[in-house]
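Before the break, one more example. Copy the sequence into your notebook; we will annotate it together after we see the structure.
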Amino acid sequence: MSSLSQFIEYCVSFYGPGGLYCLGMSEDEVTKAVRLLDLIGQKELDLDSIDRERVRDVVMVMRGTKVTTKWAV
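Here is what the structure looks like once it is written out:
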């Protein structure tokens, strides 16, 4: 992934309306989650599938859903 905007589109293609795992996530939600992960700074974002799953979890937490992954968000 070469840019942050491409990564956001990548996440939306998975979790956005009509996505592979349609969770109805908007580009705005994904962008906010990416910014939060970047601010937390536990590690540099690699913009890969692991980061995509972390973004998903952050959005779910922002929506008030309990997340039970092995990593902390």
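The chain has a mean pLDDT of 89. The chain has three helices and no strands. Try to locate both features in your own notes.
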